[in-house]
């Protein structure tokens, strides 16, 4: 029969084991300290970046919008480089932005092209209905976005805003058939 091997037992000095844990603890503390310092640097960089972004005033945004165009019906496989090549004949291009869905990352099918000079927009408008990837693109001047609170009255659903309540004439209020609408109280059926 085969000889059975006995498991070998290695005895360690408890003091050596303690020193090993102490070294691991010190190394871990050092790594944590380095990570905290790096996180602080990242926070500082982010604060500087946010200040730069927020410092662009409304006038700057309107100036950028004045020299930008909207490009609609852009093929989903189109790249910013292809759009830049398509509009290069119009003049100097500062930036090409293809908007993407923030959840999926897929393109939305439209883009913005920012030119160096507002007078170049007229040249770009001549490329309206030209083909890019076999699709006719729609080119219009970019409009300045109006914030939501300044837009005025908004629709209040299917029926619109009715005020305090529906008006009725005669002795009895109108009968509502089907599901009741509005705040008429709890009706289980």
From TrEMBL:
One of its GO terms (cellular component) is cytoplasm. Residues 14-33 have a biased composition (Basic and acidic residues). It comes from the Eukaryota. GO terms for molecular function: poly(A) binding. Residues 67-144 form the RRM domain. Keywords: RNA-binding. Coiled coil: none annotated. Pfam families: RRM_1 (PF00076). Residues 1-33 are annotated as: Disordered. This is 12415_t:CDS:1. It comes from Ambispora gerdemannii. The lineage of its organism: Eukaryota, Fungi, Fungi incertae sedis, Mucoromycota, Glomeromycotina.
